[in-house]
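Tokens as discussed.
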């Protein structure tokens, strides 16, 4: 299993940050690996909402179906799956001086032959986690009032 965690501060308050993160389609703006993320259902952005996300990592394109599986006043949890991988992505947003403290924790389990790539992908996901935190902090900063 590959596990990545990052914590950073963002200039925006928790409520607009959580509202923005609740729609996984916004990942196209902040996830360097995301190529296209599309909402696949209708209705409110609540537990049970789904998205189809296409990502590209180390030149390989993969597609996962994500579901918002948990949401409360400070945490969102998305579960993604395809036949080669299962991903759980938890985002926690708390008040901090001048904005929010944002933490994300990703657990990626590869299945079948893809599991052989775990050591190679672990290093790439560490780099990707750092790039994602930097990009997400910048994007969330735009949500702060001027």
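Sequence:
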């Amino acid at each position: 299993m590959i596990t990545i965690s990052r914590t950073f501060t963002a200039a925006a308050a928790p409520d607009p940050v959580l509202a923005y993160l609740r729609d996984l389609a916004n990942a196209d703006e902040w996830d360097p690996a995301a190529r296209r993320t599309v909402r696949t259902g209708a209705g409110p952005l609540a537990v049970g909402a789904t998205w189809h996300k296409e990502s590209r990592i180390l030149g390989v394109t993969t597609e996962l179906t994500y579901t918002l599986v948990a949401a409360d006043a400070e945490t969102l949890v998305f579960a993604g799956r395809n036949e080669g991988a299962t991903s759980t992505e938890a985002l926690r947003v708390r008040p901090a001086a001048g904005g929010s403290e944002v933490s994300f924790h990703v657990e990626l389990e590869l299945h079948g032959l893809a599991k052989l790539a775990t050591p190679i992908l672990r290093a790439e996901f560490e780099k990707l986690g750092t790039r994602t935190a930097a990009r997400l902090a910048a994007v969330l900063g735009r949500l702060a009032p001027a």
